[in-house]
Design a protein that fits this description.
Blueprint lengths: L37 E10 L2 E4 L6 E3 L2 E2 L13 E5 L17 E11 L5 E5 L6 E8 L3 E3 L5 E2 L1 E11 L4 E11 L5 E8 L6 E7 L9 E2 L2 E10 L8 E9 L9 E7 L7 E5 L28 E2 L3
Antiparallel strand pairs: 1-17, 2-18, 3-4, 3-18, 5-17, 6-16, 7-14, 8-13, 8-16, 9-10, 9-15, 11-12, 11-14, 18-19, 19-20
Length: 303
């Protein structure tokens, strides 16, 4: 009986056919992190008191799309909505849904490394909150094959009131890929005695390889004071929404119930395509010009 030997493998290295591995072109993943900007808008729904929105988030339409669906799910992300019904004693609309706040940015510009927290103190007792801005010059890693992929970095922000000891306010992990500068803001609401100390800590290890990029810098912090304007006897709605969800300023339609006209629905419409719309004056200006813009205007159709 004849014996046969089978050799299985990835190929031999002999002869004129050549050997070794075939060449491979490294790949670079697409950037997945983009800095996000927000618009703050304060709308006048009606002069005089109303009962409120007809059906919560289902009564608000941006570019003819409801903020909330009938099943309770949302069509938009990273937004805030606050309504005041137009009473004499109503409270003001605070940030982030409010508009017209007083802001003062303080530069920091310091690299945050593991084991070396960075701290700044706010002493002005009129400040209601702070915005902490973190810069990531690049977030990526290069593999041994030359591929450029995403990376991650973790940080924590601690708060101390009047020297009473630090407590963790938030922890976050930034994951994805960015080949250029990426910025992320964190809003810190104050509820204790001054002075307030803000401490930023890198909780992930520092990178030990030049093939990995995940440096973070505390770029700045912004002291924010609410205007605290109540606009009594005016029904208001403050909104804050992400600019990246719209290619231009969205039209806004609100459905509310006018006081004393139940169950008839009052359609309070704000449409920036109107010739009289103040947004039209911006023309083709960048959407970021709406940051911090206060629009106090509207018309309520009588029911």
């Amino acid at each position: 009986m004849e014996n046969k030997t089978f050799i299985r493998g990835a190929g031999g290295g002999g002869g004129g056919k050549g050997g070794g591995r075939s060449s491979r072109t490294p790949i670079e993943a697409d950037d997945t992190l983009q800095s996000e900007q927000f618009a703050n808008v304060l709308d006048l729904l009606c002069e005089g008191e109303i009962q409120g929105l007809d059906d919560g988030g289902r009564s608000i339409f941006l570019d003819d799309t409801p903020v909330q669906n009938t099943d309770g799910s949302f069509n938009f992300q990273n937004f805030a909505i606050v309504v005041r019904n137009g009473t004499q004693g109503q409270s003001y609309i605070p940030a982030p849904a409010g508009a017209g706040n007083i802001e003062s940015e303080q530069n920091v510009g310091v690299k945050v490394e593991n084991g070396t927290p960075i701290t700044r103190q706010i002493t002005d007792t009129d400040v209601d909150r702070a915005r902490v801005t973190i810069n990531v010059p690049a977030l990526q890693r290069i593999t041994n094959e030359g591929d450029i992929l995403g990376n991650s970095v973790s940080l924590r922000i601690d708060i101390q009131y009047n020297g009473g000891g630090y407590n963790t306010y938030l922890s976050d992990t930034i994951s994805g890929k960015s080949s250029s500068l990426y910025q992320r803001d964190y809003i810190i609401n104050f509820d204790g005695a001054f002075p307030v100390d803000i401490r930023v800590i890198r909780t992930s290890a520092n990178e030990s390889s030049t093939k990995k990029s995940s440096d973070i810098f505390w770029s700045a912090y912004t002291e924010i004071q609410d205007e605290k304007l109540r606009y009594p006897n005016s029904a208001l709605m403050g909104m804050r929404f992400s600019a990246k969800q719209f290619s231009s300023v969205p039209t806004q339609v609100f459905n509310s119930r006018d006081e004393g006209k139940d169950p008839k629905q009052c359609d309070c419409r704000y449409d920036n395509t109107s010739e009289e719309s103040p947004i039209q004056e911006l023309g083709t200006a960048p959407f970021k010009l709406l940051l911090g813009l206060m629009i106090l205007r509207g018309a309520c159709m009588t029911c």
